[in-house]
Amino acid sequence: MVPLILETANSTEGKRWFKQVLIEGFTDTDGSYLYNLHLSLQRSEWVMCSLLDVRNTEMMGINELQRNQVRQLFLAGGVSFNNAKESKEASRRVELRLQFYGLKERESAEIAPPEFHITKPEICQLN
Q1: Which residues pair with 78 in a beta bridge?
Q2: Given 3.30.1340, 2.60.40, 3.30.1450, 3.30.1330, which CATH number is that of 22-127?
Q3: pTM exceeding 0.90
Q4: Does residue 23 sit in helix, strand or coil?
Q5: What is the DSSP letter of 79?
Q6: pLDDT at 17
């Protein structure tokens, strides 16, 4: 899915309307809210680490330029158990949420977003 998202983001319409991808981690209701918030963040971080791992991205056909684009477009976040599903197993998940510019928001987005640099991309915080 990630190569398709990057391809779409690089299209003419994608450059105009595509804003970012939010990687959201979710948990079940076992444990405290803060425990689950931390766990949900870890889930989304694990996905981000996988997306930036050279071994994984090579298997997906993602090159260094595209990995840099992942760093710019993808954000990791967690929401604890605020959006529980019908079962605990279904609640333990990670979702990718595509976000697009609104009509008025697009006008102010012409200013380039700040660049984020990972000093040691080969080292993931979860290792």
Answers
A1: 25
A2: 3.30.1330
A3: no
A4: strand
A5: -
A6: 94
